[in-house]
Amino acid sequence: MADQQTSPAGPDLSLGVVLSEFSGAILLGHVGDEDVLLVRSGSEIFAIDAHCSHYHGPLAEGLVVGESIRCPWHHACFDLRTGEAARAPALNSLAVWKVEHEGDRIFVRQKREQPKPRVEGVVDAPARIVIVGGGAAGFAAAEMLRRQDYRGSIVMLSNEAAAPVDRPNLSKDYLAGSAPEDWLPLRAEEFYADAGIDLRLGTEAASIDTRARDVVLADGKTIPYDRLLLATGAEPVRLPFPGADQPHVHVLRSLADCRAIIASASGARRAVVIGASFIGLEAAAALRARDIEVHVVGLEQRPMERVLGQEMGDFVRALHEEHGVIFHLGDTVTSIDGKRATLRSGGVIEADVVVVGVGVRPRLALAEKAGLAIDRGVAVDAYLETSIPGIYAAGDIARWPDAHSGQAIRVEHWVVAERQGQTAARNMLGQREVFDAVPFFWSQHYDVPINYVGHAEKWDEIAVDGSIAARDCLLRYKISGRVLAVASIYRDVASLEAELAMERATR
Ligand SMILES: Cc1cc2nc3c(=O)[nH]c(=O)nc-3n(C[C@H](O)[C@H](O)[C@H](O)COP(=O)(O)OP(=O)(O)OC[C@H]3O[C@@H](n4cnc5c(N)ncnc54)[C@H](O)[C@@H]3O)c2cc1C
Ligand code: FES
Question: CB-hemisphere CA count at 13 Å for 394?
Answer without folding.
Answer: 35
